[in-house]
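Technical annex, item 7. During the second reporting period the consortium partners agreed on a shared format for inverse folding records so that results from different sites could be compared directly. Each record opens with the tokenized structure and is followed by the designed sequence. A conforming record, contributed by the partner at site C, is shown below for reference.
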């Protein structure tokens, strides 16, 4: 391989790189980066206005006129919505009589219950719940929360009691009665690793 060294070079017309050529750049700490011509060609197709949108951005922060890149926790600081916000909702999970709830029953958001007698639904443990959230792609932090609404479709007296498990504390009325409003919403808030507090908020 033939190399020539220049301290300065001025190209007044055209510098031609043939197919397969690469550029190597050495950083101030000796790290060598390689750019091939395909990458440079791709950059050439991006207008200056679009390049400005990625210049000077900070991961996890929003700025007017700049692209948004999520931080390591997949969070961003804030958004202001000027229109309607629609979020996806999977088909509600179902439950019947006394049982331990599954990950899906807790994380789908809506649980349509048809008990045939008074029932107790035991939540997942804090460890199980955190593992399920991570498996679903959520990098949970303290203060993060999700809601679970239980709709009681049972008959007279078929009330449902939400029962705590290790790492879970329930605050408020844990009984979802058949009588109106016949439903209860619990907000599960992470307070520490594998630890959640479920607040009755509706």
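Designed sequence (site C submission):
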């Amino acid at each position: 391989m033939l190399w020539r060294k220049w301290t300065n070079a001025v190209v007044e017309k055209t510098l031609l790189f043939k197919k397969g050529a690469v550029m190597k750049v050495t950083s101030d700490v000796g790290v060598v980066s390689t750019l091939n011509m395909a990458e440079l060609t791709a950059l050439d197709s991006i207008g200056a206005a679009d390049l400005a949108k990625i210049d000077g951005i900070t991961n996890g922060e929003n700025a007017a006129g700049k692209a948004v890149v999520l931080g390591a926790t997949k969070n961003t600081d804030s958004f202001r919505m000027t229109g309607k916000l629609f979020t996806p909702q999977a088909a509600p999970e179902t439950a019947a009589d006394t049982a331990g709830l599954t990950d899906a029953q807790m994380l789908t958001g809506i649980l349509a219950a048809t008990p045939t007698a008074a029932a107790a639904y035991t939540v997942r443990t804090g460890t199980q719940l955190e593992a399920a959230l991570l498996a679903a792609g959520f990098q949970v932090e303290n203060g993060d929360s999700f809601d679970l609404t239980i709709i009681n479709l049972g008959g007279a007296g078929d009330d449902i009691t939400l029962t705590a498990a290790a790492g879970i504390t329930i605050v408020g009325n844990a009984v979802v009665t058949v009588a109106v409003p016949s439903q209860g919403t619990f907000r599960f808030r992470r307070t520490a690793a594998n630890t959640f507090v479920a607040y009755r908020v509706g």
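Helices lie at 37-44, 48-54, 103-107, 126-135. DSSP finds four helices and twelve strands in the chain. All partners now use this format for quarterly exchanges.
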